[in-house]
């Protein structure tokens, strides 16, 4: 869904992947995995990439796309809050694009994950994080699509008692990383471009949970109302290719 476009320069500035072991947190559809693989192949770098996700459902398609050109890729099913399969002080660079707010669906799990990221990173190794700004911290008419979509997703999650994404404010993340021991922490806000077609897919998934799941509150009006506003937003998205989201990139060192 996400493609680092506007912040690409800041993300890669001062980052040298050649001869490095890179850990990616949150493979998902493989956007960042492909981005790293392309960079490595184009530049003929000797880079090893381990990409970890708790959900391995996209691993096969990613492997099929990448493995022929980039053999040093390991896709590993695992929880970032328990990286027992990665030795301490073994990773040069860690990249987590839009993953930590997903880990934080379960409160405090992100602290365990950050502790693990710190453990596996070599001394002076680099941590790169991209995240959306928390919805409560942004009050701007520039992000209507983003805001409507997130509000609907969050509301349905609460209605169906599902874990919901918890975006982390960069100030809080900076402080949390500092408590764990990270140093040289800097972050910058930017506008992310979200692909509308992918955003529709995600909305549709949430709509299906309303239609197929049990109606725990036994209130048909409430359920139908959310189906209606979801379908209305999907129609709006069909008219656009992409929309803006407020995001930030954070960099830190061990
Ligand atoms: C928005 S996606 C990441 C997007 C991806 N990094 C990219 O650049 O397109 C968030 C991912 O985090 C994964 N995730 C959530 N909690 C996790 C955990 N505790 N450990 C590992 N992965 C986790 C989810 O399964 C999901 O695939």
From TrEMBL:
Q: Pfam families, from UniProt?
A: Methyltransf_11
Entry keywords, A to Z: Methyltransferase, Transferase, Ubiquinone
Alphabetized CDD domains for the sequence: AdoMet_MTases (cd02440)
- Share an example GO biological-process annotation for this protein: methylation
**Span of domain Methyltransferase type:** 24-129
InterPro entries, from UniProt?
Methyltransf_11 (IPR013216), SAM-dependent_MTases_sf (IPR029063)
SUPFAM superfamilies per UniProt: S-adenosyl-L-methionine-dependent methyltransferases
* Species, as recorded: Natronincola peptidivorans
Keyword check for Methyltransferase: yes
- One term of GO molecular function: S-adenosylmethionine-dependent methyltransferase activity
Superkingdom of source: Bacteria
Which Gene3D superfamilies does the UniProt entry name for this protein? Vaccinia Virus protein VP39
Q: What is this protein called?
A: Ubiquinone/menaquinone biosynthesis C-methylase UbiE
- Keyword Transmembrane in annotation: no
Give the source lineage, highest ranks first: Bacteria, Bacillati, Bacillota, Clostridia, Peptostreptococcales
């Amino acid at each position: 869904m996400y493609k680092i476009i506007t912040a690409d320069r800041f993300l890669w500035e001062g980052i040298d992947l050649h001869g490095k072991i890179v850990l990616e947190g949150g493979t998902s559809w493989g956007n960042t995995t492909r981005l790293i693989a392309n960079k490595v192949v184009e530049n003929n770098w000797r880079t090893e990439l381990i990409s970890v996700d708790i959900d391995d459902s996209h691993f096969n398609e990613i492997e099929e796309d990448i493995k022929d050109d980039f053999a040093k890729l390991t896709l590993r099913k695992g929880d970032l809050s328990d990286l027992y399969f990665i030795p301490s002080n073994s990773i040069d660079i860690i990249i987590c694009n839009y993953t930590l707010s997903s880990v934080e669906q379960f409160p405090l799990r992100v602290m365990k994950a950050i502790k693990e990221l710190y453990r596996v990173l070599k001394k002076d190794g680099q941590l790169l994080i991209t995240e959306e700004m928390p919805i409560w911290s942004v009050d701007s008419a520039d992000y209507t699509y983003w805001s409507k979509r997130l509000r609907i997703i969050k509301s349905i999650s609460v209605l169906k008692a599902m874990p919901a994404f918890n975006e982390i404010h960069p100030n809080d993340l900076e402080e949390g990383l500092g408590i764990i021991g990270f140093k040289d922490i800097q972050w910058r806000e930017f506008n992310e471009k979200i692909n509308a077609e992918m955003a529709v897919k995600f909305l549709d998934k949430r709509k299906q949970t309303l239609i197929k799941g049990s109606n725990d509150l036994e209130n048909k009006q409430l359920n139908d109302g959310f189906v209606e506003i979801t379908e209305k937003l999907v129609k709006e998205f069909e008219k656009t290719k992409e929309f803006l989201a407020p995001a930030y990139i954070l960099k830190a060192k061990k």
